[in-house]
Specification:
By secondary structure, the chain is mainly alpha-helical. It has one domain. It is built from 6 helices and no strands. It has helices spanning 2-26, 29-35, 43-67, 76-94, 101-124, 135-138. It is elongated. The model has no long low-confidence stretch (mean pLDDT 91).
Length: 140
Amino acid sequence: MVNMVLRGAVLLWAAFFAIVGARGLLDPASYTETFGFTISGVAINTLRADLSSFFLVSAGTAALGALVPAWVRALLVPAALYGTALAGRLIGVAMGDPTNFGIVQGMIVEALSVLLMIGSWWVLSRPAVAPVDGAADTGY
């Protein structure tokens, strides 16, 4: 039961970030609305490529890890991506970068994403425990 709930949570997470990535790939201006920054000129191409790849790769590997039991280690890819993003934000804060609610919110999403992916990998990579015969009769 826990495995199904985790798989479902990871798949919902993957669907959300796949939508964010696909939307940004088709319309990079959506990133400026979502993340609260402006960009113009040829930099829009970098925004389209880099942010979209971040979200699409993390969503794809999360879905793969949730759906294919033999590939559960794929959940470590989005954990590494979001963990690196969180580390970058923490370094920025420590170095005095301006912060606002959006930055704090991003850090919370990244931290929760890392916890979800590592926790799911941990639980889903463990072998299933078979019930012991007679355990129900003994009260254990």
